[in-house]
Amino acid sequence: MNRREFLLSSAAFGAMMVAAPSVFAQDKLTILGSVPSLGFPFFVHMLNEIKAEAATQGVNLTESDGQNSATKQTADIEAALVQKVNAIVISPLDVNALAPAIEEAVKAGVPVVTIDRRVDGVEGILAHVGADNVKGGEAEANAVVAAFPNGAKLFHLQGQPGAGPAIDRNKGVHNVLDPLKDKYQIVFEQTANFARAEALSVTEAGLAANGKPDAIVCANDDMALGAMEACAARNFTDVKIYGFDALPEALVAVRDGKLAGTVEQFPGEQSRTAVRIAVAFAKDKTEPKEKLVLLTPIVIGKDNLDKAERIGETK
Question: What UniProt keywords are attached to this protein's entry (predicted)?
Fold first, then answer.
């Protein structure tokens, strides 16, 4: 072999060695991880946990921020199907609006695992992993009853209409309080769409029309923190406010006595479990032991802050 032949052979070998990783990378499974909106800290944490578990499982992840738009999240699913992803892990913004796109994925043979928000109208979804939000709502309402054994005047800030957790948490709250309505009166009840700024303005309107309540029950922590701001502005610091999601900021507020409690639904464990189920099926058609995996939420107060999944993130 002359020098020119040797150099050409070496260059070809070097090119092959450089190309090899990308060839092997293409052999890796790819999953879509989709959440309703990264504008909500809860879903930022959820997507981070999906990302971490995907890395642990050795699969590629295509990330999707639904941007609080069913149209955007639907388009992301459709794009993922064109790209031939091997599985989809999704928390749908609206369980009804996202059903057609999820059904399309199922018909295409792509395994779908839903997190947090269950889509009941589509046959063939591989599994759902979430919290039992009805039980979570019941736990939140029971915490109010325990705090006010002689009865209370209540505000109730509901979540986004059409979102499964909002529907279920609302049901849980009413399961407990409706039979006790002679003692526990919900004098103001309105959606604030899971948003802090909206909860601030909605609570201000409620306070103006109804005066100070004993407690405010909120379907998530962002709304609880908005309600807390509205009450603080009027110096109603003794109103007991309950949130849902156990965000780090809410845990700090519970620790400092500004919130009475928040419901922990273990979103990190939900996310990791969903990815494990999706990857196992995509790899070798391993069916999940359970099609419906529901974690039981608990109320976090000052006395059990150590039970919160994200307590390590508090300052």
Answer: Signal
58: left (phi over 0), alpha (psi -120 to 50) or beta: left
For the chain, the maximum distance between any two Cα atoms, rounded to a whole number of angstroms, is 98
Say what percent of the chain tops pLDDT 70: 92
Residue type, 133: N
CA 17 to chain centre: 42
**Alpha-carbon torsion, ordered 293, 242, 68, 292, to 10 deg:** 10
pTM for the full model?
0.78
Count CB atoms within 10 A of the CB of residue 68: 18
- Cβ-contact 91, 160 below 8 angstroms: no
pLDDT, tens only, 166-191:
999 999 999 999 999 999 999 999 99
Sorted by where each starts, the structural domains of the chain and their CATH numbers stand as 28-130+265-294 (3.40.50.2300), 131-262 (3.40.50.2300)
